Amino acid sequence: ALMLGASAVLPQPSARADDTHYRTIPIGARAIGLGGAFTGVASDVSAAYFNPAGLALNRNLGIAAGLTINAWDRLKLDDFYQQPDTEVTVSTKANRTVPVFVAAAVKIGRSDENGNKRYALALSVVEPIFSSGGAFLTIKQELLELSDSYRFTELDRATFYGLSFAARINSKQSAGVSLYVSVRRLNHSETGLTLGGGTEVPGDPGTYLGASTVANTETLSFNAYHFILRFGWLYRIKPQLKVGLMVQPPGIPLRQRVNVFSQE
Hints:
The chain is mainly β.
């Protein structure tokens, strides 16, 4: 992934959001407003994710945190499928991505004649993915006295734990790197239940012989661990104009594990 951004202070400033970046996520109030241009700004602690080079040129560093809830939805459809003596109901729910960002940064090293330190360290936690959802389907056949139900649920979550280091090359340039350990977890489960009616007992309505119940459950859990590196460079042409570059090579896999369970 490659991110290039530029920032300039103009009489009528404008910025365009760019949704084509790798894992573009809404963290940091200013980064959300500037979109892709924040790569060339990197003016707060969220630079640990967007462009770690900005940590070295910034004078004031500290602690930042953010939580954004994007959207969620619920849907229920009665008579989803119509057929004589058959009633089908479907209900679904989905919780979309809830990005979380927490970071802290400090300046280290000797101060120059202007009181600025050359190096910066930062710790950050980014949760770009946190989504869950599922569906529930019921089928009732009055003629055969059958009832089928099907349910599935899914939870998808990714968390990045990172350490960043940045150095000021000179008064106008800086470079930095962020190393993240990515933990991706996916849990998926499916449950099916079938109730068979059998034969009704004469003279005893509601009582059936040979009635049966069949249940089936399947679960899948997936855990993956990767190293993610993000390299940044920032050049301050003048106080009102900066150019930034962030490069993220493919992640380095550490370990992956899949567990599957089925019961009937």
